[in-house]
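Quick start: load a record and inspect it. Here is Glutathione S-transferase:
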Amino acid sequence: MLRLIGQATSINVRKVLWTCAEIGIPVAREDRGEEAALRALNPNGLVPVIEDEEGVLWESNTICRYLAAKHGRADLLPVAPRARAQVERWMDWQATDLNASWRGAFMGLVRRHPDHADAGRIAASARAWNELTKILDGQLARTGAYVAGDTFTLADIVIGLSVNRWMMTPIERPDLPAVAAYVARLMARPGFRAHGANGVA
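Running the structure step on this input writes:
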């Protein structure tokens, strides 16, 4: 059974949980525990961390890629270089551009972190977040289905969780019909209902 370290409220842990649900991997999840023990596995001191018969691995998107490849799920992560790149570019976009945009608004309005209490910075973060979600809306309007094309992939796991966070954070949001239709499609998946649409901050 796969050992997964990290609290279930973490968006990055939920990426792994949803991936495991899609593949059908049994998971033994545990909270992060003592800092020293966590850093012995991941020197960054961050979750998620997994451990299997191959050893320890960290970084959520890398873990998702690893699990899909290990279990031969070319539907989630294609083998052909171009098709794989289409999936991975959106995963990377989520981890870099999209995550950077929402950090200020989410940390200020949901986590109430004192370092993110400035109203101007929160507003700027919300604007940037909305603008990037408009880019996603345009992509979904083009595909008419999922982020990387007409089938569900790992890109939808990482971005689906980000869309849920966008919807749950108390900011003004534009009407984005392709995103709304996308969420409705994701709701048909048990893994999203369990780990993506649960409203956990």
